């Protein structure tokens, strides 16, 4: 099943504030939160210690979902596939993180912290201590990625890109 903690599909707008999602399990994707065909504003939330048997230990978005995580923390989540903290599945899915903390997440198939097929926008974020035996300890990006005033450090990989792994054709723009 998807969405161990919260499952959201075909909801025009969802707002989560000051929620704690801890210790959830998903036999598929999105152990903390699964979001499909929806716009989600997640503010001041803690998504911790969740485990997905596939992708998105903390948060999983697909089907053109637009997900904004603001002032939130994604800590110690695990995914057996990609995106220990967050997984953006599909080029139509957009991930926006503002003033958020992504730390100690792990994924077996890339993107210990964040894995994104679509647009990824990080502003004033910290992505630390992500791990993967594959590529992209902090970030694994397959499309456009914008990083502003953010810290990406102490991430570990066996493959390539301890901090950021960018596939051919993807672009990464960093400022400040």
From TrEMBL:
SUPFAM superfamilies, A to Z: Pectin lyase-like
Domain of life: Eukaryota
InterPro entries named in the record: Pectin_lyas_fold (IPR012334), Pectin_lyase_fold/virulence (IPR011050)
Gene3D superfamilies: Single-stranded right-handed beta-helix, Pectin lyase-like (2.160.20.10)
Protein name, entry field: Right handed beta helix domain-containing protein
Species: Cymbomonas tetramitiformis
């Amino acid at each position: 099943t998807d969405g161990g903690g919260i499952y959201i599909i075909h909801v025009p707008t969802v707002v989560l504030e000051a929620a704690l999602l801890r210790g959830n399990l998903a036999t598929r994707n999105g152990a903390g939160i699964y979001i499909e065909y929806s716009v989600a504003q997640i503010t001041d939330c803690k998504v911790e210690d969740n485990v997905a048997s596939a992708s998105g230990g903390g948060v999983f978005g697909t089907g053109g979902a637009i997900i904004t995580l603001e002032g939130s923390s994604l800590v110690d989540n695990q995914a057996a596939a990609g995106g220990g903290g967050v997984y953006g599945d599909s080029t139509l899915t957009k991930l926006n993180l503002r003033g958020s903390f992504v730390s100690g997440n792990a994924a077996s198939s890339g993107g210990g912290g964040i894995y994104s097929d679509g647009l990824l926008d990080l502003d004033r974020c910290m992505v630390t201590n992500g791990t993967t035996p594959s590529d992209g300890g902090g970030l694994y990006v397959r499309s456009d990625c914008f990083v502003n005033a953010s810290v990406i450090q102490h991430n570990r990989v066996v493959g390539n890109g301890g901090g950021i792994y960018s596939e051919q054709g993807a672009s990464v723009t960093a400022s400040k």
